[in-house]
Write a structure and sequence with these properties.
The chain is of the alpha/beta class. It has a single domain (about 5-285), classed as Aldolase class I (TIM Barrel, Alpha-Beta Barrel). The chain is about 35% helix and about 10% strand. The radius of gyration is 18 Å and the shape is globular.
């Protein structure tokens, strides 16, 4: 399908973007910006920010929408230096809002939860006390004790993406479960009075508005605070195909509907991704506190 005009985004780069890349390279870090072929990479790097991707560059799951590599030969033991390196890079970039995501590591006994805890603690030790931390995690195969470990470490925002409607899970997320992901979000929200929870999903996969509104209702039932909605863009011809390019006016409609349903905020647009300009959550964290 030919991309419409509203999906034609200019690449951006300046001395800040090269400096951001240099910092990431210096500390030997992975980012979701690179790993998931994010279309906002140039814009974010130019603004001196990035989303760190922990636990390696390859994933143990076979989701058909995602660009992150599934090469089992690239799946390695967690790097013990990664928590300190992420904290050092965050400080070097002078980030006051840090987003750490992860590849799914079903091969590890705890799914990588202890490693994420170590990253949170390293950031707390290295960066300013005012620095906010958002973690975007896997579902840990529904092991709620792993979720509790992470919440107890004190992130400000816990994010777990639903990605799509229930009907598409067998095609897009065959090793995940719609109900399990909702359970993860619900359990996380119970873990801290000041914790914000967040989730996101893609459109353009063939879903109906009724199905989208039902997904919103399920997320509100799980007490999710923040919602992100973006256009699905197939990483390659081998991935699940785009069924529709959703007009920006429809994204505005989805945002208004989400606010009506009680989300604190909803960021909705063709190029919105879960961690895109995520620091807007600072406003709502202050309100919640």
């Amino acid at each position: 399908m030919k991309k419409p005009d509203w999906l034609k985004k200019k690449l951006s780069a300046n001395k800040n973007s090269y400096s951001t890349q240099k910092t990431i390279d210096r500390y030997h870090l992975n980012t979701v910006c690179d790993g998931a072929n994010c279309p906002n990479k140039g814009e974010c790097y130019t603004e001196g920010t990035a989303t760190f991707m922990a636990l390696g560059s390859a994933c143990t799951r076979e989701c058909t929408f995602c660009a992150v590599p599934k090469d089992k030969l690239e799946i390695k033991l967690p790097d013990d230096q990664e928590p300190a390196n992420i904290a050092a890079a965050a400080k070097a970039l002078n980030l006051d809002y840090i987003v750490v995501t992860m590849v799914t590591r079903d091969d590890l006994d705890d799914g990588g939860a202890a490693h994420i805890v170590n990253i949170i603690q390293a950031i707390r030790d290295k960066c300013s006390k005012q620095t906010m931390i958002e973690v975007l995690t896997s579902d840990f195969q529904g092991e709620l004790k792993q979720i509790k470990m992470i919440i107890d470490a004190g992130p400000d925002v816990f994010n777990h993406n639903m990605e799509t409607i229930d009907r598409f899970y067998p095609q897009l997320r065959p090793q995940a479960s719609y109900e399990r992901s909702l359970k993860v979000l619900s359990h996380a929200k119970k873990g801290g009075d000041k914790l914000l929870t967040k989730s996101g999903f893609m459109v353009g996969l063939g879903e109906s508005k009724t199905e989208i509104f039902s997904l919103m209702d399920d997320l509100r039932d799980a007490n999710v605070d923040i919602l992100t909605i973006g256009q699905y863009l197939a990483p390659s011809i081998r991935h699940y195909p785009v069924k529709q390019y959703v007009h920006p006016d429809v994204f505005d409609e989805y945002r208004e509907k989400a606010l009506e349903k009680g989300f604190l905020t909803c960021v909705s647009g063709p190029y919105v991704r879960s961690s895109y300009k995520a620091s807007y959550a600072k406003k709502y964290a202050s309100a919640e506190a």
